[in-house]
Write a structure and sequence with these properties.
single chain, alpha+beta, five-stranded antiparallel beta sheet, 3 helices
Amino acid sequence: MKKFLLLLPLAWLLNACSDDTDNTADSSQEIAAKEIQMFSIPSTDIINRQFSFSTQDSDSAFADKNEIVSAINNTIKCTLNPKNPSCKSISLPKFILMEDESLQRPTQMQYKISKIMPLMEGMLHIYTQSQCNNNWFGLCQGNIIYVLQNKHNQWEVIDIFAMENPQ
C-alpha cells in the first residue's frame, strides 16, 4: 500500500506535464495556421509552369498576373540586367545588384516552380528547377529556392539559395 501511495503523486505529476505539453503544441499550431491564413497563399496553378527569359526580353515579358511569379520574374530581370531602371524601385536582396565582371551573370534563365511551402510570419519558400547559361554564385542552375515575404500586401523576394536535393 505504501508503494501505491508513493507512485500516485508521480502519476499525477506525469499526467499534469503531458496535458500542458499537448495544449502548448495545439496553441502554437493554431497560431501558425492563423498567421498563414492572414496572407493569401498562392494557388497551385503555377506549379510546373515553365518561365524563360533573356536579356533581350522587354519588360512585358516579365509581367505576370500572379504576384508570386511576378516577384520572382522581377528578381530574374534584375539578375540578367541590374542596370535596368526598374530594379532600383523594387526591394531585392542586395547581392543581385552587385556589379563585377567576375560574377558570371547569366544572359538567359528559365525556371519551373516545383513546390510552394508556406512558412510562419507571412513567408514562402518557392522551390524551382532552374537553368541558366552561366554560374552567378550557383544561384541559377539546379534546385533554387526563392524566399518570399509578404510586405505591405505585396510579395517580395528577400533571399535566394540553392539546394543540392529538394525535400
